[in-house]
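Render this sequence as a predicted structure.
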Amino acid sequence: MAVIAALLVPLLTACAAPPAGPAPVASRAFAATGPAAPDPATVWRQLEPLLPAEILLMGEQHDAPEHQQLQTAVVQALAGHKRLAALALEMAEQGRSTAGLPPDASETQVREALQWRDASWPWAAYGPAVMAAVRAGVPVLGANLPAAEIRNAMQSIAFDDHLTPGSWQKQQENIR
């Protein structure tokens, strides 16, 4: 069973083959502490109880290097155990992808394929997770709206009534 991890800031998304029957919703807080890179074995032990999953969402705080390090470690752990189908991220627009690139693609090729905007998303912070997926032969997919549509989407109330108050609260709890 493969997972798609989506880095959405809030971060991560997608799916390969869905599990037989509905997968339980699970959440786990990962401790991102200090400047040291997370231990891969520890990261895998924390991830494994959450699997199988169609989608794994990861959140982060901008300008928190330990969060980006943890994201990279999660991508590496999932890819290393052949559990990562794709990495979808907020940092690139929908329609952008590394799907045609080989695992040994250069960072320049990857950035061009994703039309990376370093002014918005510093490559130094997010590039390691992206390159970990590419090196593992896992496609990286843009998951954000085009820049021209973002402001309208943020101001729209079109989806506000689609959830009952109880479902809305449950969604907020799951995201936390």
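Summary. The longest helix spans residues 65-80. The two ends are 25 Å apart (CA to CA).
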